[in-house]
Amino acid sequence: MAASPPPSAAGQRPQWLAPLLAMLAISAAYVRVTAMSFVYDDVVIVHGDRFIQSPRYIPRYFTEHIWSYLMASAKNYYRPSFLLWLLGNYTVFQERPLGWHLTNLALHLGSCLLIYFLALRLTRSRLAALAAMLLFGLHPIQVETVSWVSASTELLGTFLALSAFVCYLRGVDSPARPRPWLLASIFLYALAALAKETVLIYPGVVFLHEWLGRPAAAKPLAPRPFWQSFHAAMQEMAPFFFVAIGYLAMRLYALGSLGHHVLDLSVRTSLLTVPYVLESYVVHLLWPAGLSCFYDSDYVTTLSPVKVFLPLIVALTVLVLLFAAVRKSPAGLLASFWLLLPLLPVLDVRVFPRNEFVHDRYFYHPMIGVSFLAAIAIAHLERGGSAERGWWLSLRVGTLAILAALGVVSFLQTAYWKDNYALYTRGVEVAPHNAFAHNNLGGVLLEQQRWEEAVAHLQAALVENPELYLAEYDLGIAYYEEQQFADAEAHFTRAVRIQPKDAGSHFFLGMTYLHTGRLELAIAEARRALALNPYGAGYHFALGVMLKQAGDASAARAEFLNELERDPQHQASLEQLRLLGPAPAPQAAPK
Predict the structure, then answer these.
(1) Which residues, 6+ apart, have CB-to-CB distance to 565 below 8 Å?
(2) Which phi and psi (to 5°) does residue 288 adopt?
(3) Distance of CA 91 to CAs 84, 86, 100, Å?
(4) pLDDT digits (tens, 9 = 90+) for 426-480
(5) Which of 153, 317, 373, 395 makes the best surface tag, with the fewest CB within 10 Å?
(6) Do 215 and 122 meet the contact criterion of CB atoms below 8 Å apart?
(7) Is the separation of the CB atoms in 40 and 148 below 8 Å?
(8) Which of 210, 209, 165, 170 is nearest to 189 (CA)?
(9) What's the DSSP call for residue 213?
(10) Parts of the chain belonging to CATH 1.25.40.10
(11) Separation of first and last alpha carbons in the chain
């Protein structure tokens, strides 16, 4: 018979005290978010994406890809709920980063609290539930997601999916199965799917939960015949499955397909790279040192013993041991599913930019499963250990010591997300062969007017990835600002060749033509830029200046007015319209 923990005064404490203290501990680990600025993509999204700055664009959230305002590419992302979240943040906080970071932290804390309640249902142990909550909240692999405003898509999708499951369980626990709880669960799942593609696994969670006998319900079911369980699970899953089908239909309409491969990699290379990807996440989970926004991830093209067979053996060993440990535990099987299935989409390395297929944020949702498995293990130790007080004290102290160490590492890790310079310097330090890290650091150094250092990093980016159009673009900007237009033209031309759909490269190539006296070519490139991105800041104004120089005052006036439609306070356009004078009155048609 399993030993029971010795009675103690701790049992008389309010049940809400431990999770409250846990939330305070998680908040302390992320206290630096109050001083963080916008980093990485945040700058472009918050400052440049007009779609999140006005409710009038909301209908387009549901009919276009997520970055349609900013670029013609990136058509793998359909996330209307995320755009609504960004709109809400912009409406309240405008371009002040503190509010954005606090809402990120609030979502993370909300998910941590939901994990506590779900782990408590799965294990019936408050110590295990508290450990699950703290592991999810404090593990350093979560720092990227919580510290980066643009990663709120992961936070939002996860919080909504967990909320949907809690509502579903409330309905399951009620003998009358009240419809409001089911409808709330369906609605929250729909919002979650529209926030992040990973949560499409949710119908599978509902299916497995019913099939395994409702391990998270207030009253788990007794074992049933296989087909009876299967039929009941299909019925429970059905409404959520149809929501997933509806989401896929909307995604197909908006994107033109369910997904696009960014890279033309062979299936063989993709499959050979999978063990390396799995190994990377296992290492980051078990030894969270040297974490960064960038890693030196490369594709595996040969049957390498080190890069294929060894990681594959490790992955298979972990899977076998995991199955052996949980095969008789419905709660363990459910947790394992929640760990493994969300990882499947990120194993298709062809949907990511070159060498950018390993990121800590992709493990945010799978950490739910890891946290539940840890809780189940602790509950097992708690119930199977000695009844002596020393055993219980050792288990608690050991658990809290590990979690405290993870919290300290997370606190230290948040320092690298302070600003772009700290983030990209860390990226180059951890991943010296990552082209994006060098390119982004070069861009920051340009802003700091450290021209020679910037060019060195941008050139290093091209050494690592000769087809990185962003590095060609940024080098073009560097030479353009130094008025070295011949070099600028060469880099913008190569950027256009590599990525013909990049509006910025076309625009600045046109500006380079303007400064070198080739007006017709300048106008042509400006028009191409506008065709790719009609909302580009300053694009209409620049084309208006070009047309004015070409003697077409009427067309120039129209472009200045278009710029004012984009930004009613654009002073340069207002000044140009003043210089052009009032528009000529239309001539009467001849009788």
Answers:
(1) none
(2) -80, 60
(3) 10, 8, 11
(4) 999 999 999 999 999 999 999 999 999 999 999 999 999 999 999 999 999 999 9
(5) 317
(6) yes
(7) yes
(8) 165
(9) T
(10) 420-580
(11) 106
| Domain 420-580 top-level CATH class | mainly alpha
Rg (CA), the chain: 27
**DSSP symbol at 360:** G
Give the model's confidence band at 389: pLDDT under 50 very low, under 70 low, under 90 confident, else very high: low
For 273, counting Cβ atoms within 10 Å of its Cβ (0-12 exposed, 13-18 middle, 19+ buried), the class is buried
pTM: 0.90
CB 337 within 8 A of CB 208: yes
- The torsion angle over the Cα atoms of residues 384, 389, 390 and 396, rounded to 10 degrees, is 70
Q: Using H for helix, E for strand and C for coil, what is the string for 494-554?
A: HHHHHCCCCHHHHHHHHHHHHHCCCHHHHHHHHHHHHHHCCCCCCHHHHHHHHHHHCCCHH
Residue 67, classed as helix, strand or coil, is coil
pLDDT at 324 over 70: yes
Tell me which residue has tokens 């297929």. 357
Condensed to tens digits (0 to 9), the pLDDT of residues 134-148 reads: 999 999 999 999 999
* Residue among 39, 95, 147, 146 nearest 422 (CA): 39
What per-residue confidence (pLDDT) applies to 4? Answer: 46
Contact 99, 42 (CB under 8 A): no
Measured CA to CA, the distance from residue 307 to residue 272 in angstroms comes to: 8
Measure the CA–CA gap between 43 and 47, rounded to whole angstroms.
6
